[in-house]
Amino acid sequence: MATVSEVHSYASDRRSMWQNVKEGVRVSGLPWAFIAPSVIVMLFITFVPQAYQIVVSLQDFKAQNLGGAPAAFVGLDNFRRVLSDQLNIPNYNFFPLLGFNIAWTLINVTFHASIGLAVALALNAEHVIGRRIYRVLFVLPWALPGYITALIWNNLWQRNDGGVNLLLQSINQHFGTSIPTRTDWLGQVNPPIDLRSVIPAVTIIGCALLVFWLARRTMRLGLTNGDNRRLDVSRTVFSIGGIIILGLTVVGTLLDVVVSHSTASNPVIQMFNRAGAPVLAFYAVLIANIWLGWPFMMVVATGALQSIPPDLYEAADVDGASKWTQFRQITLPLLRPAMVPAIMLGTIWTFNQFNVIFFITAGGPRGQTDLLVTQAYELIQQNQLYGDAAAFSIIVFFILLIITLINNRVTQSTKAYDEA
Hints:
The chain is mainly α. It is built from 18 helices and no strands. Helix 4 (77-83) packs across helix 18 (386-411) and helix 13 packs across helix 15.
C-alpha cells in the first residue's frame, strides 16, 4: 500500500508546470525580493548590452552608423566572414589565431600551476627561514596592476638599451662570453624554433590517448545515472561526442599523413600552424605572463596546504609511507578542491589576457602574438568593423563556454559534496 508521502509526491508530479512555478514563487518569494535589485542592475549593465551586441552582429555596422544611421541587415554574413577570413585585414586568420590562443593558455596555466604549487610546497616546510617574507615578496607581481607590469616588461625587452640586452652585455663584460646583446626580442619575424613538423605526430598521439581515456572512463562510469538508472545526457554527449570527434581527428590526420607522405595539412594541423612556430616575441610575453601569474596559484596552494591536518602525515610516517607516497595520496587529493577552481579561473584569465599582449607587443610582429581578445579590440579600434567585431566576440564567448563546460565536466568542480 502506498504511503501518504508517496501519494503526495505523485500528486505533485501530476500538477501542471505553471502550478509548480507558482508554488515555487510563493515559497521563494522573499529570497527573490532580496536579489531583485541586483537582477535589475545586471539586466541593464549586462543583458541589455549583450542583446544589443547580438543585434549589431547581424548588421553591417560601420563607423558611419554610430551617429544613428540605420545599418543594413546581413544576417549571419558577419559570422561567415569572421570564420572564413574574408575581413580583408592583414595577418588575420581565425583558426590559426584560435590554435595559438589555446596553446598560449595551456602553456601558461601549466607553468602557473606547477611553479605556484612547487613554491608553496617549498615555503610550507617548517625549516625555511623567513618564509613569510618570501610569500610577501613573491605575491608582489600578482598584486601590481597588470598594465604597469606589462609596461615594465616592454622596457626590459627593448632592442636598444633594454634591460635584458644590458644584462647580457654585463655578463659578456664580466665573464668574457659573446652572447648577442642587440637581439630584437619584440620585432624579429623568423621563429627561433619550428615545431610544425611534429604537430601531426603530437596530434595523433594526443588525441589517441584522450580517446583511450574517455573510453575507459565511459566503461567505468557507464552512461546512466547511478541513482535512478536513467541516461545521463551530459555524460553521454561529453563521452561519446568526445570519442567521435577525437577519433575522427586521429583517423583524418593519419590518412592525411599517408597521402601527403609524412606531412599533414588538414584543418586541425593548420589551426596550430602559428603555435608550432612562434616568433621570439612569443617567448618574451610568455616569460612575462608566467612571472605575473604563478603567485596567484602559490597563494591558493598555500592556503590549501595549511588546511591539511598534520596528523595525516604523522600517521603516514608511522605506516612507513615515503614522501612521494604522502604527496600523491594525501597532499594532491586535499589540494584538488582548492586548486581546480583556481586553475579554471586562471584558464579564463589567461585566455583573455589583454594587458600582457597589448602593452608588450601590441600583437606584433605582424600580428604573430595576437590573441582573440586583442584581435577583437583591433577590429573595433583600428578597423572600425563593429558588426564583424560583435560577431567575433560572440564566437569567442561560445569558445570560452565550451572550454569551461569541458573543464567543469572533467573536474566536477561545481558539484556539491553530496553529489560527487
